[in-house]
């Protein structure tokens, strides 16, 4: 195998992407399909799933299947894995992508239920899926892979977004601990830390932060970009490309790492 060939994942990988019917998750799912993988996604939005499956019905491979699921609901997680067994017959890659932005506000202004929901969706769900995936990943012929989506907010402080930042920091701790625990089973575990990713979700985050600070959207966006060394937002495709590399032979020596794909965000 040449070095160039090592940059592409093995064909036929069985991949589960949480939160995979829209946004970064959908871009990751389609990237794996393009690489010859079979992909199952779960998502909390029936509308997003319907749109995905409608688009897939017009493709030749029709390689993505889906389950409606709230990732913070353990019963829903069980349904996802029942579908994974039925659709894929096993698992080689878990992409723990699902997450929410959570509330924006000072710590003394935050509602406790909003804090709990953010932690449930962004952190606890990653535990629920990893716990169920590991027995399947141990049976993977090529060795299993878990990729956890953290955030640049998982390496920097993020004022007024403390529930989100706390959960994303915790994901890094979970990743590094699981890499040590699962390495002897030939399962690699890494985290990707996207930065300011271009798209509707980031637009909502900027708008909420602008309102919190009494700024216009344009002023807030300019402040965000000024803190990125490359002075531009990251694209979902750049995040997906990193996920593909981590699941390729070229990434087979990488585990226990939190890899920022962010243009070097200097501060939040």
From TrEMBL:
GO terms for molecular function: oxidoreductase activity, acting on the CH-OH group of donors, NAD or NADP as acceptor. Transmembrane segments: none annotated. InterPro entries: NAD(P)-bd_dom_sf, Sc_DH/Rdtase_CS, SDR_fam. It holds the Pfam family adh_short_C2. Belongs to the short-chain dehydrogenases/reductases (SDR) family. This is 3-ketoacyl-ACP reductase. It comes from Caballeronia choica.
């Amino acid at each position: 195998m040449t070095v160039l060939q090592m940059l592409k994942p093995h064909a036929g990988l069985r991949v589960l992407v949480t939160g995979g019917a829209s946004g970064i998750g959908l871009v990751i799912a389609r990237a794996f399909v393009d690489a010859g993988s079979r992909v199952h996604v779960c998502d909390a939005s029936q509308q997003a799933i319907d749109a995905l499956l409608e688009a897939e019905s017009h493709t030749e491979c029709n390689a993505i299947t889906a389950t409606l699921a709230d990732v913070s609901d353990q019963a829903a997680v069980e349904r996802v894995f029942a579908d994974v067994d039925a659709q894929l017959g096993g698992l080689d890659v878990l992409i723990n992508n699902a997450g929410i932005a959570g509330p924006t506000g000072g710590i003394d202004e935050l509602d406790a239920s909003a804090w709990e929901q953010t932690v449930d969706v962004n952190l606890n769900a990653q535990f629920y899926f990893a716990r169920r995936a590991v027995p399947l990943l141990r049976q993977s012929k090529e060795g299993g892979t878990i990729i956890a989506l953290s955030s640049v907010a998982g390496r920097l402080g993020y004022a007024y977004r403390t529930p989100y930042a706390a959960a994303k920091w915790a994901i890094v701790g979970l990743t590094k601990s699981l890499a040590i625990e699962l390495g002897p089973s030939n399962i690699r575990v890494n985290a990707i830390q996207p930065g300011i990713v271009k798209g509707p979700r980031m637009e909502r985050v900027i708008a909420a932060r602008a309102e919190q600070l009494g700024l216009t959207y344009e002023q807030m966006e300019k402040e965000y970009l000024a803190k990125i060394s490359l002075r531009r937002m990251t694209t979902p495709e750049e995040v997906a490309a990193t996920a593909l590399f981590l699941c390729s032979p070229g990434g087979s020596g990488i585990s226990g790492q939190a890899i920022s794909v962010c243009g070097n965000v200097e501060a939040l």
